[in-house]
Amino acid sequence: MRFLAASIWKDLRRRLADPAAQLVWIGLPIVFGGLMSLVIDDGGPAPKAHVLVVDEDRTLLSGLVTGAGRQGQLGQFLEIETVPALDGHARIQAGKASALLMIPKGFQDGVLREQPTELTLVTNPAQRILPRIIEEGLRMAIEAAFYLQRIFGASIRDIVAGGVSTPGFPTDDRVAGISRRINQNLQQLQGTLVPPVITVETRTEASPTANFQFGPMFMPGLLFMSLLLVSQSISADIWIEKEKGTLRRAMSTPQRLHVLLAAKIAGAAALMLLVAIVAVVIGVVAFDVAPARVPGTIAWAAFAGTALLCYFLFLQMLGTSQRGANLLTTMVVFPMMMVGGSFFPFEIMPPGMAAVGRSLPNGMAVTQTRALMFGQPEPGALLIATLVIGGLALAAFLGSVSRLRGRFLIS
Amino acid sequence: MIDVQHLRKQYGEAIAVDDVTFAAEPGRIFGLLGPNGAGKSTTIGCISGLLRPTSGRITVLGHDVVADSIEARRELGIVPQELALYEELGARENLAYWGAAYGMSGDALKRRVLEVLETVGLADRATEPVKRFSGGMKRRLNFGCGIVHRPKVLLLDEPTVGVDPQSRVRLLDLVRQQAGSGTCVLYTTHYMEEAQDLCDRLAIIDHGKLLVMGTLDELRNLMGERDLVRLSGRFEPQAARRALEALGADVVSADDGSLRFTVEGASKKLPAIFSAVTSSGGDVQETSLTQPSLESLFIKLTGRELRE
To answer: Can you tell me the ipTM of this complex?
Structure first.
């Protein structure tokens, strides 16, 4: 026990002799989390596409096209500005807008008479995403206009013709005639539309962005990103001790090999505990984690982090050189982080990938941490995760002892 | 004491130590002398329990290092060739950690740490991180870590490698102190002078085999009054060898550029030697003559310089 305490103290002192290096383990996930929150957070103003419209037609239909861009959801993405042709060309050339839409003279006539009509969209090559949104939006609008024209073209032509020939409101007879025609069209379509062949079930689901909560989604994954980085880094210490001769010296003391290794792991566990405390305190301050959940979360994170260390220690000891061992652990740690919910939450992963990630030890740990921090932990699931994570750690520990007893020292 | 009987250590086909037998006594310094790669560190590794002997038996104070390894290791102190220290920690912390590894604790450990700090002359630098120490200071601390638990048997594996002359003198004094207090010391080195100055008994090891063993006087006697002569120049090796043997010389090595041989009363025979070598078609450009020593014995035994 005294040797265990001395080992823990020794390794903690060694680590804390270089606090900047330790801050990286916590700092990197914080920076990563910060970047993710910037990408995902909907609190700030959404970027808008600035669209210049040169309307040379100045008709009802061209007005509808321009107006449609200002309505509804499109209005959230588009900022429509009607400009003279020269000004429009000059500004898009200067890269001062996302796109320039040219509505030519005769656009309305062409549409109503079912003659080929051309809209010109000039996009800003310096921008990638916003011009694509405009292009797609315009394509959909044209498709909608085509079907409207096919169904209600005669009525629209009548309205347009009346509006042009007789100023002021149309007469009651004309309105009645147009209404009757529209009604007849709808009755003809009834066989197809009512009852509709395609039924659309409308369900109100929580929108991912509307209900999105950064803490529960990312916090556990980021905590385990820290712990994975700590594990990988600390596990490499076995090679440092080997190179410096302290491992050889320790092995010539009367301490048994498994005690030596356990003491080393205990020193690392103390560091895991520190990282877990810092991370959970951040969770309390930034994401309203309930204080009652703190001890359980810290204990779980320290346990799972120590288990991860055992895995990486074993991988390190499988290596035949320090460089090879570091390469091996690096090849493991990044896929583990990526699939195990540290880079991206399981919810936004493809289902297959999420299933694999959740079954990894760190994925299990992330899932349980989320439940412990923000949700309702299920005792059964927690027990299974504990047994799997702990069992694998025990196997890795025994493997490491065996390696230490075998050829590790002379490899 | 340390008792090594027919020790053999093999890695695949390579034999690192081959049938080595020796014993080291309490209060005495036993030297294992040999060039790099001779098998000294492997022997130390087997004694300390780090390496499992392929065959043979080793006991430390009666404890078999394989069957009763924990008890054997409890009696051992090791000063490895490497600076096996935690450089981020201070000297006191290093000593305290290694003391704890041998089961020491509390006030006894604290007192002993202070004592060792005084012994190795680092009491005034006790809390400073080791990484700021000079090479000599680190070597002394490395030694201190090996004796903090008052071992009855001390293994020193080339502890003066890369040490400045002053620190070397101090380290050798520390080794003598340990032997003086009754500790059995096994000292490996490839420095002849160190071995001659320090060791009560010596064994010369090369290519894993123990070539010769005894006190310094016993080993010198093996050389008799024969001096070691080295000639450099241009030679006809076979002819030169025949000419020298005719003068009673024992030729150790002969090639186109150098001749090495032992001969009794070399200084008086030098004119005859030059004449014989010249007559055999040689041209002597440089001559050196060494009185009987461990070095000349090593060359006689192995045909090689110790540092080759």
So the answer is: 0.82
